[in-house]
Amino acid sequence: MFRRILCPSDFKERSFLALEKAVQLAHQFGAEITLLNVHSEFMDSKEREMLRVSVDTIKEKYRQAALQTRRKMQKEIEKLHTEDVPLSYLLRGGKPAETILDVAKETDVDLIVMSSDGKDNIGDFIAGTITEHVINHSRCPVLVVPFYQK
């Protein structure tokens, strides 16, 4: 039923619950998982040019952030016994909601598994959350794993 699962993660506790569910589904359906982390602070070339930022300096900072993020992803995945689950890691820059949808389309996923991100600030009440945007605009099913603080 599901062959490709996209699991966006921001490395908050709630996103690890979604990752656990994605791994369970991957085991059940023999699916592969793409673990995605989006960095909104990454600038595109036009933004760097406008700020007159050294391209080499920014590239090195992005490279370091990418390596650190990949290590975090691998550390969390190791806890979940995924030896038999095909995994890929993606690090992207941009607005999280839009980037999640873009990656889902690019990688032709059958399912997006993500956590509820909660309304953490006033902007979420006005503009909606990342999860709401993904649910409302996704071309594939979205499984939202609720997060309840104890």
What do you see in this structure?
It is a single chain. The chain has 150 residues and is of the alpha/beta class. α4 (96-106) packs parallel to α6. Strands 3-2-1-4-5 form a 5-stranded parallel sheet, with helices on both faces. The longest helix is centred in the middle third of the chain and has 24 residues, at 55-78. It has a single domain, classed as Rossmann fold (3-Layer(aba) Sandwich), CATH 3.40.50. It contains 6 helices and 5 strands, in the order βαβααβαβααβ. Helix content is 49%, strand content 19%. The chain has helices at residues 13-29, 45-51, 55-78, 96-106, 122-127, 130-137, and strands at residues 4-8, 32-39, 87-93, 111-115, 142-145.
Strand order of the largest sheet: 3-2-1-4-5
**CATH class descriptor name:** Alpha Beta
CATH superfamily: HUPs
Structural class from helices and strands?
A: alpha/beta
**Termini gap:** 34 Å
> In CATH terms, what is the architecture?
3-Layer(aba) Sandwich
Number of helices: 6
Regions with little confidence, pLDDT below 50 for 5+ residues: none
Shape annotation: globular
Radius of gyration over all CA atoms, rounded? 16 Å
Largest sheet, if any?
A: 5 strands, parallel
Note the run of SSEs as H and E: EHEHHEHEHHE
Please, what is the average pLDDT? 80
Strand content: 15-25%
